[in-house]
Structures
1.
Amino acid sequence: MEVNLLSGALGAEVKGIDLKDSSEKNWQLINLLMLEHKALFFRDQDITCEEQINLAKKFGPLERHVYVKGLKDHPEILRIVKGAEEKHQWGETWHTDVSYNPKPTKVIILRSRKIPPVGGDTMFSNMEIAYETLDNEIKKKIKGKKAIHSSLGAAAFVDKYTEMEGNGNLDEYSNEHPMVRIHPETKKKILYVNSMYTKKIIGMDKKESDEILKNIFEHQERLDFTCRFKWTENAVAIWDNRSTQHQGLTDFFPGRGLGHERIMDRIAIEGDHPQ
Ligand code: SIN
């Protein structure tokens, strides 16, 4: 086995592990590596939908997306499709998946099926380091505080994307989570707000809340907390959605990535109530 770090902050490309193998022994190794590096990347893994599902089930019960329809034969798999002429990419600003849910996603397994010749990399950011390096005054102000996370409604997940289909749910969801959560496995502190879904700090007036959140969001965007993965076809990313944020880069500019499809298969594993 070979583990090559993608940056000093997080992320590792792993060679010598076969993701078709969902045995307990193989999963234990993958889980340990994921807890250590937070985001793992594997190339040349031509796994079937069933193999992706089998591996995902080792992490826990699978989660269905609240707004987007899964594949007909494999509803656990959400196919993220960027059409050839689309200028947007699903998940195109920093976020933690579905943090508006009461139990946001634990782990994501994303498999590439079709990748443009240029553009569409995914970036990841380490929210443990973001907490450790946060200004002490802000740490004091948010100690013990919760924030509201709100979903953006079905439109945000399907209307912008011509190839994505909604599942008919039009409800909106809001849930409160601690701004600093403890990772249930590593027991490390994680800065748990994100600019896509976190709207307000509970028990603070809006002006102060907006100011603190703005400062935190800027801090979370520091490039030295990140790594960047350049996709190839049949690559798989497995990341810890509790301790990271990610964004799919929308750099499909005319004459470059535009005119190409990008297709990814996503499986989400259910998380727990952030504590
Ligand atoms: C996501 O935000 O869930 C997907 C990111 C990507 O497709 O690169």
2.
Amino acid sequence: MNPQTMNSATPLLAAGGRPWPAEAAAAYRRDGYWTGERLDRIAEAAIRATPDHPAVVDDHGQLSYAELGARISRLAAVFSHRGLTDRDRVILQLPNRIELVVCALALMRIGAIPVYCLGSSRERELTAVADRAKAVALIVGDMTADYDAARVAADVVEQVASARWVMTAEQLRSASITGRELEQTYRVSGTDDIAFLQLSGGTTGLPKLIPRTHDDYLYSIRRSNVVCGLTPQDVFLSVIPAVHNFPMSSPGFLGVLLAGGTVVLTEDQLPGAVFDLVALHRVTVVPLVPPLAHLWVNHAELEPDAIGQLSSLRLLQVGGAKLVPELARRLMELVPGTLQQVFGMAEGLVCYTRPDDDADTVIGTQGRPMSAADEIRIVDEQDRPVASGHRGHLLTRGPYTIRGYFRSPEANRQAFTEDGFYRTGDIVRQRADGSLIVEGRSKDQINRGGEKISAEEVEDILLAHPAIDDAVVVAEPDEYLGERSVAIIVPARAGTSANSGVDRKSIASHLRDCGVDVMKVPDRIETTEQFPVTGVGKISRVRLRTLLREQRSTNA
Ligand code: OOB
């Protein structure tokens, strides 16, 4: 059939956004960062070298490398038969199960582009994302007691013109194909084109799409493997949803497949069950977000005998949100010598503390950029570099940091400098040794235990409520989550419309009715007569946060 060839049409990356300038791309190739390999071939070396070694294990079964290779080829053929082809975007909303890995790699094998969505996404986000990506299909998880994913996906197909069909995890598992059809190869675009789209945590009304190429993503994985010292003996456990960039590529399940190790995926986050899994599979690497790390130390305090179950660990990674030094210290005591802080973003840049760093660095910093080619600028409000060691806005550019979101010219003007630096929205300080300390954030976002929520997105939805005149969503500190979301609402004036139903329950059910991600429902709702404003008449989020703090301390 078709030989694998470069497609002559304009790369989708160029059509849908901003690729790296030709000069930068040539330099990244020349200097060996971009190697022209395909992401879907990431397990190829291990498939050949150790076909019988366990590749992926989940709560229901496992696949050896040979079986993984065969499953990817078979599913690629199934997809091809269903009419999927190069550059077709496919929404992928699958839990931590073997199908996620097989499906993502099978889509990429035929040049189709997975668009990773979180399990908590509901109709509103799925529709918006499918629409922006011009997705042709949705692949979703099995029906659960409280969510009928296939029905919601079918509704999305109704609403989005480009979308044609839905497949469930169950259908993926039972899809069959004949031997002859397996022989085909596929026509795919170049490795400098989009491999997949990831959702940005977002600061705008709707999530933006992050286009990652085969070349840039493979480099970030290869480099992560070096920094983290991955070997075929490593056993990696993903407790956090594997569609997040952190457990996918830092070094993540993809790094482990590249190294020929074993990936364990679980849907159970309770520390008792997770500790059992660590002991059972002799897990060596686990990425956690701070709330899960919290659960781990609490569990170990309640059940000191359980600590022995963690003896195989060599790398306990914590990232996605700020790890406070107190929790870092407790983790150091729980599993000495294993803690690694990871500060990264789906847009690119990843920083790690290194296994041989001293305790102060591991406890007190979020690590340093992983690549010598990562360019860092720390600037003031006018984009001028701050004095060394001072805090400022973090900007970054490099061989695996995107130059633009997919089809978002407006957002790109704000999120990138003219010379291609990404404005991370993080406020950092850099030590003389290059280590970064995350000190805050300038973006309007709530980091709810690693899950990012755009304040503007939730505000827009609240404003559609008939009993709400105005709404602002801000973060407030939470002992367990780090931050939680508070909506401050100006109820509609009595007489103009019903303002009786402005409590969390009615708001929560309003948001659910709108098909909003369950995670985005505000943790707390407050009402006020009017908002404090800044000198230029804008709503002051800083003042709001202070007011909330005052309110809490008077209530306490
Ligand atoms: C990771 O990626 P995203 O895209 O979900 O979120 C990125 C943002 C960063 O800009 C920063 O605001 C925050 O999450 N963040 C951290 C952090 N790690 C991420 N803030 C403080 N300390 C940290 N260690 O979250 C992500 C992607 C790859 C690797 C690790 C995390």
